[in-house]
Amino acid sequence: MSGTATMFAHQRPVGLGFAVLIALLYVFLLVPLVTIVGASFTAGLLIEFPPRGFSLQWYREFFARRDLVDGLLLSLRIGAITAVVTTVVATMAALCGQVLSGRKSGWFQLGMTLPLLVPELLTAVGLLFFLFKIGLGKTVLGLQMGHILMSFPYAYVSITAALRQVPASLDEASASLGATQWQTFRMVILPLIMPGVVMGAIFAFINSFDLYTISLLLKPLGGNTLPLALFDFLTYEFKPTAAAAATISIVLSVIGVALVQKLVGLQRAF
Amino acid sequence: MIKSRHLRLLLGVPAVALIFVFMILPITNMVEMSFRVPGAVDPFGDDYTLMHYARVFGDGFYWNVLVRSLLTAAGVAILCLIVSFPIAWHLSKASGMKAALLYALIASPLMTGVLVRNFGWMIVTALNGPLNESLIALGIISQPLRLLFTQTLVILALVHVFVPFMVLPINNALRNIPDNLVEASVSMGASRYRVFRDIILPLSFPGIQPGLILVYVLAVAAYVTPALLGGQMVTYMPTLIIAELTGTFRWPLGSALAIMLSLSTILVVGVFTALTWRLMERARA
User: Fold this and answer.
1) Grouped pLDDT means (10 residues each) for chain A, 270 residues
2) A6 and B183: CB-CB below 8 Å?
3) Which chain A residue is nearest to residue B240, measuring alpha carbons?
4) Do B106 and A22 meet the contact criterion of CB atoms below 8 Å apart?
5) For domain A65-269, is the CATH number 1.10.3720.10?
6) To pair with B216 at 20 to 30 A between CA atoms, which of A52, A67, B71, B131?
7) Residue B252: CA atoms inside 13 Å, Cβ hemisphere, count?
């Protein structure tokens, strides 16, 4: 802190320039989101920013559209199942990773985060062929598996980080007092890592909710997720309804970020 | 104790199975697919052939698209670094509530879908949108800029999508630079430029290098942004691959293209890592 302070203290003009630059960069980061939210409340007929007047008509229009609402419901359902399955599997995997050491632990970590490291496009293409081969092509179950795979690393990373904070001595103390492995986990470890588990579930849900490429290749016949439905809508209609749909998914993310911030603090989350 | 360790290892089985069955097998399968003959009715036939690779590597059209994709991704990575470094610097100097707020500010876009953020740029850069209106009001331009469905907008939107991926590793590297190192050099009369060039930049390289690689790899394979904002005029590898898979159903050709893209990406990342090896070593020393 003090290093920067001295660096900029005796050269004020540059300090001011830097502040302006930073402000502009934050504007750059937020401007697309702000315009969407603004445009969704327009009383006019076009997508525009600043919006004309204020109205909730486009939200009414959104909920009247079968294709968009179905997309929202499918996304919510797939996201919820993804959050539950990934956190259970990831908690088990994190407990396993804990007893590995050295090189084995490194390989395990790499394997568990592979879906994050390999571009989504490649996984999606591979899964398209593979699901077709095993008879799950164009099914909701196949799409669900793709979402679980892509969201798994988020849950794994969050839960592993939480588990690392738990001292090993607790495990031993609990065992020496006669608790079984399951009792130790249920009554000692799980309560301690709960914030990390919930954070993992939130990240997995949001990631699933936002996935596009993998859903495009694996989508079941006639079943669009919200992003797929929104893309089609933007291509053919481009009305403020799209801004309402996008605002709904922005609100979901903001709720997620706020929850994570409250639970563990974002600083630790990244 | 031995027994409990085995039990623990068993807990990893579902996760390993998930990754193996739904990721490793499918990608291996894709490699096999790229050698299949085209099918008459199905998307692929039973026999094996090298014709797709011959076609992909022999046709100038595919090379053009590949080079465009690789160059665009490189441009995106570099622009991303330029935009992200000041943000990371600012973030690394914040603490307490301010830091929490800044993290939320930087992470919120990360938690919003790519499609949503791209759609935002469609509104911002519309002919009568806020960007053109403000530039005209400021007297910088007299005619509105036509940005939608141009390569410029694709690059701008991709930079926006990937900024958080660059900010976070650089922020971590900057936080590891001891303050007294900067103080010492300032007190010994180093100019701000010298401090930046000789201390901060080299020492933040352990964050810059992974940031550049991550953004590059993600940008090369990005599909949504060019599909939504690039229009029909500019083709990139991902849009081409998806068109082969879902439009014309030529699965083997699509696979060969995906593999060509992956191999060239790995090659670029490998060369970059080798070239910057010395810089990484210097930062560690």
Assistant:
1) 45 72 92 94 89 92 94 96 98 93 90 91 94 92 97 94 87 85 88 91 93 94 92 91 94 86 69
2) yes
3) A121
4) no
5) yes
6) B131
7) 23
